[in-house]
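Loading example: each entry is read as two labelled lines plus one structure line.
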Amino acid sequence: MIITKSEFLLRAHLDQQTLEVWIQEEWLSPDQGDAEPVFSEADLARAGLIRDLQGDLGVNREGVGVILNLVDQIHSLRWALANRIAPPQDE
Amino acid sequence: MKDPYETLGVAKTATADEIRSAYRKLAKKLHPDLNPGDKSAEEKFKQVAGAYDLLSDEEKRRRFDAGEIDASGAERQHERYYRDYAQDPGGRRYQYQSAGSGFDDFASQDDFLAELLRRRQEQARRAPGADRSYELEIDFLDAVNGATKRIMLPDGGSLDVTIPAGIEEGQILRLRGKGAPSRGEGPAGDALVAITIRPHRFFKREGDDILLELPVTIQEAVLGGKVKVPTTTGAVMATVPKGSNTGTTLRLKGKGVAKKGGGAGDELVRLKVMVPAEPDAALENFLSGWTPGSNYDPRRDMQS
């Protein structure tokens, strides 16, 4: 399911400028659509995480990047572990 | 729900700063995305966040302290957590880097893990690009007969679209590999072209048939004769039978829209008898000397 940029801004409670910074920082890397980026549900959930980190948790700009990188590594690890326990079917 | 002061572990007299720092401390420990495998984290986090929402709002805190409101319903609703989407295709993309080189140290000792990671990276690398959507408005006759149209893209490029004969309004053409390029080395996505059709001046379409209203003269209607009839592939000669009327319909077999399984629909030509728009002395003259048969009455059916 594709989310357009305007819908994304609305649902993520973001303004255009903030979104641009997040994309520049590579915290979000949406697909490039025809004229503007298009987003996924995962991007939306990720935006929620970034908002929580910066808002509630008081993490600064540098910290967000570090945390996201580690979170991504954890999900890779979890994926590898899950598949090590229950091997995936051939795709 | 528990007492919000207790939930955050602060005294009733705590300052706003103390409350915030207590909340942050707990949130860092409990945020579901920082505990992706702990299902209970979400429940605990909701309680803590709810308590913070209540106590960080001065007015709400005052009313709670005064006993005007209780802590029920103060659990924070969170729509979604990233952990629930991280293994979706959209989330996997972010792991592209770490899946590749993040486990080199284990992978060298575990063939199975190495194979898994290799496959995963391969998948990410081969993932196709995103689909792109376009709209294309075409002429009625192009929709019926087929055509090749060019879409100009915002980036200056262009896209040639082959319209199959008989395409219908709203149909979407998928052009393989004409979408966004892959992020890795996979194939490009597809272009999805939604077709809208401009109406024609006199042709209409109904399923596989073409409808046409054809004006004829009184003479052609009464005496019959050959008339030139436009079709979607050019004019043809057709015979108007003697004694035709407005509403008489001629069927031109196979002159309709190409059917999917081969063959074509028909063109249905509905005649419309026209009196000359300008007064015509000769016609008036002739008709004033004409007496219809005694039982001729076009309005007979309307008499009670």
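The first helix of chain B runs from residue 4 to 8.
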